Amino acid sequence: MAxxxxxxxxxxxxxxxxxxxxxxxxxxxxxxPLYVMKSIIEGNGGIMHVSDDFVVGSxxxxxxxxxxxxxxxxxxxxxxxxxxxxxxxFALYTLVRRRAKWLIIPAMVGGATLLADGxxxxxxxxxTAIEGLKGIAVGPTVWxxxxxxxxxTTIIILSVLFxxxxxxxxxxxxxxxxxxxxxxxxxxxxxxxATLQDLSILRALNPYYxxxxxxxxxxxxxxxxxxxxxxxxxGAEALYSDMxxxxxxxxxxxxxxxxxxxxxxYMGQAVWIDQHNQSEVFQKMADFNPFFEMMPDSLxxxxxxxxxxxxxxxxQALISGSYTLVSEAIKLKIMPRLNITYPTNQxxxxxxxxVNWALWAVCIAIVxxxxxSAHMEAAYGLAITITMLMTTxxxxxxxxxxxxxxxxxxxxxxxxxSIEVIFFISSAVKFAHGGYVTxxxxxxxxxxxxxxxxxxxxxNQDTFRSDTVSLLAYKNQLASLxxxxxxxxxxxxxxxxxxxxxxxxxxxxxxxxxxxxxxxxAQVYWFVTVNVTDEPYTTEYTTDTYGTDFxxxxxxxxxxxxxxxVNVFLRQIIxxxxxxxxxxxxxxxxxxxxxRNVGDFSFVLIQEDMSPETQIPNWERMIIQARLAIQRITxxxxxWFGLEYADVVTEHVPLILGKISYSMxxxxxxxxxxxxxxxxxxxxEN
Length: 686
What we know:
The structure is a single chain. The protein folds into two domains: 29-321 and 354-456, Amino acid/polyamine transporter I; 468-655, no CATH class. A six-stranded mixed β-sheet has the order 7-8-6-4-9-10. Strands 1-2 form a two-stranded antiparallel ribbon. By secondary structure, it is α/β, with parallel strands linked by helices. It is elongated. Mean pLDDT is 80; it is low at 1-10. It has helices spanning 2-11, 15-24, 27-30, 36-43, 52-77, 89-96, 104-118, 120-131, 147-163, 170-195, 207-215, 226-229, 236-241, 243-246, 248-276, 280-284, 290-293, 297-331, 353-370, 373-379, 382-401, 406-427, 435-466, 475-483, 508-517, 566-579, 618-633, 637-640, 675-685, and strands at 137-138, 141-142, 468-470, 489-497, 505-507, 521-533, 539-544, 551-559, 601-610, 647-655. Helix 2 packs across helix 15, helix 7 runs antiparallel to helix 21 (382-401) and helix 9 (147-163) runs antiparallel to helix 19. The protein is 58% helix and 10% strand. It is built from 29 helices and ten strands.
């Protein structure tokens, strides 16, 4: 209950909550001004091909994209689709998954593309910020004078950022909010000062100019300009995913200020571009960024430094968000089990080593491969359009589950779905310019999810239907084995991690392990099932002793964001059961712990290996084999269930699926040669 109270206090609307929100939620969308206008200009052939109407139309497209996608869809609609305060595509999926099995598809596709496209965020933001330092003198010295130095500096910053993840970011995280407040205020004031030089830019608030630009001959890219425009709202999905850290009210309270600062900065950049589009200096420059160029020289160094810090914060938000996303996918059995650690006492902060170093490797590879932020921007945003479309599909299902009028829900699906399909088509041109990188990453992630999820479906629908037994049918045998002194005591508490189904049925391999493979005498036999709930922070359990004091069916109900520390939970459960008189105490004669009334635990984990006798279609066999292969190279069940320091026994059993046709041997009546006949035959041959 204390954890719930702490969470509520963090998510309550307050000044502290608003600051945390600025630091946690808006890193991605907040650094978009670093590259959006730059990408629009470069996509149209350079500043010499930019007119006043083009600039106004571009800012109008940015403004209305932010309003429709970020404000209306995510802030006003999606934030209401929370799962006990948690947001994001997997939290949304848990709210609607009972309505239709096929909803797992948009959930997996959206999760895979969100992870894949997000891998570009640290590379794009940090590289763009460091490029602003090129040619800038810090004192008497120019620290960065060429792109090779930009790449080296970017790699160093990213590497340090990923290295410190294992120690937790609780301390530096406290500074994120104030830094991002300074960042948004800085870019807002900077944009306001530039906007005041030409208030005619306010025409961009009229959607006419946005629509006109799409069909204007001055727009050399036509509808494909939306690929660059879309970069302004790529962080909207992260805004929804991070809601659980700060609460809906704090997002509502902070977004108007953030949105205002972003729009002012885009307008300010547009005014600067319009004032300098005829400048020969900039027409001859191959690479420049209007975001940095519109700053007064006296503020340039400060602007670059605060931009770099904002880029690092955006990268940190992406990294933390990836941990959370993967953790949720694991708990929902969409991805294989991975080792998860909790480096600090801060609720919700976790660290997944495999994910961390995979992200680092991909980010470094992207920096080396693309070399410049301009090339990265050309590939950025393609996959996230798919994520947003999948979220729209799930939101439609959620609205229907809330009894919203079918016409209104359908209108939402049609309106936002159409916009996002157009954005996807306009971004499709990025595939040839590097978008294939994120598409390939997304495809790999989606294949892993597909194999893991459908492999589990195939295995469960077959084995648990035909190869289960009732625990009650073996109650007498377990009672006799417990009291049979002819067998040495295996352990005091023998625990099996298994799925106990309705009717108290378990996989037959469990009883075979206890009674046949090697009779395991114990004082109490435990059958533990971990149920992952749709609520994120559930910690509940039920027990059933079947009228005995030696058999316990434990059903653990853990939220999809909770770690599965079974060893710790069981010790709490047994103490509470002893206090209620449901189990006898287990006093230990030899122990270092005074008054110890709980005996030792041994955990038996059953590991399945594909049997050659399996008779299922070839494609199902391939999926099962791939799933078992992934299972062998990921975290062990012992680590997943928090049993690293417990006594664990792993037993291998054959996994037999499908109908099995047994070939029975028959006693042959054929003549068997006598030994003397064999000798005679050999002599004849010689």
